[in-house]
Structure formats: structure tokens, C-alpha cells
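Why Alpha N-terminal protein methyltransferase 1? Reviewers of the renewal asked for a concrete example.
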Amino acid sequence: MDNGELISQDVKVDSKESAFYVDAAKYWEQVPPTVDGMLGGLSSISDIDLKGSQRFLNSLYQLVECPGKERALDGGAGIGRVTQGFLMKNFPVVDLVEQDKQFLDEAEKALEPTNHKGQFFNIGLQKFTPEACVYDIMWVQWVLGHLTDDDLISFFIRCKSGLKPKGLLVLKENLTSSGEVEMDSTDSSVTRPRALIIELIKKAGLRVIKEQKQQRFPHELYEVRMFAIQPV
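Here is what the prediction returned.
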């Protein structure tokens, strides 16, 4: 698989596409393609985040039925921060999915001098369909708040087909402590409570096999948890 292969999936576009998605796309078009931009001005937490992700991934390989280590997907990849800082150290092939072309171009540019192998998919997760049975790990972080509940369930269902038999879908997301869904009109996203995330996972025919809280983040931020899930 060649480095730098950019793919735009052919999808049917609804002319009445939800303003929820349009507004989010417009917001991210104004965000600089930097680590600080990706993390909303909190680039200082990037290293803590990546180390926490690595620890969680390590724990998954202690499971009896652990996934392979051949190919991963970075869902909502942005400029490739997670790919370059974490996933590439564990998988020889990492594919990136990102709907903002500016971010994906920056990711491709940053990864060009490395030994990265993988494809670049310029598409939103609400429209992305993975190739069948190819991924050991599908890592989806800080992006699910940009999908509606129905689209999130549909995305989860499509992810099931993209996983290898022992493959896992890993979610890393902010969670509300109020028990309610909280809307951010600035970037057109929602933050869900844990109970709703679990409910949507179950509705898609998946189950959580391991869960862990991200440690050492500033107290004023949302709680962040990682969920490893697999088909029921």
C-alpha cells in the first residue's frame, strides 16, 4: 500500500443535509491545522493523552482473545496527531479518515517523511464505509459528538463489517457528568453522558469489553473515557 494514497469515497449527498453537519464543517474550516487547533488550544495535554491511549491499547493485548497488530484506522484523524504520535508505533499500516481536506493534506504532508503506510480517506464518519474485515483496531477519538445518534448507530454497524474476527473498535470520548446531552453551538457538536454512549453501542449490536478513564487531565475538562467494543 503506497504512502500518500488519497481516496474520496463516492457517496450520495443529500441536498438537505443537516445543518448540524454543515455548521460543524464550517467551524473546522476556520481552525488552523495544528495540534493546538485540533485540541482547542490545549496542546499541552497531547502527550498525556497519547500515553494514556498507549496504556489502554497495551491492556487490550493482555486479553485472551486479543486483536492482531497489522492494520489500524484513525477515525476523525485531523492532522494525524494520533496516527503519528501513537498508532504508527503499534501498527505497520494505519489508514486515516478525515472530512476536512485541509487537515488531511496536513496529515499527508507530516507523514510523508516517515515510514507511514496507509490510505487517506477524505470523508466524514457519518458517510464512511470501511473495507470489509481488514482492521485489527479502529480508533475513533473526540469526533463522535459530531454525529447524530442515528448516524452514530449506523457508523457503529458499518464498523462491525470492517473489523477482523478478533478486531476491536475503540472509542475515546468526552462524557458529561450531568447525565444529560450537552450541546456546543460553537462547533456544532454534542457531548453525551456515559449511559447514552453505552445505549447506542448496544443498539448497534456491540458490547463493551474493557473501559478505562483517562488520567491526569485538567479537572476543569470533561471526563474522558476509552471503550473497547466488539460485535455481540
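The radius of gyration is 16 Å. This is the kind of structural detail the renewal will allow us to pursue systematically.
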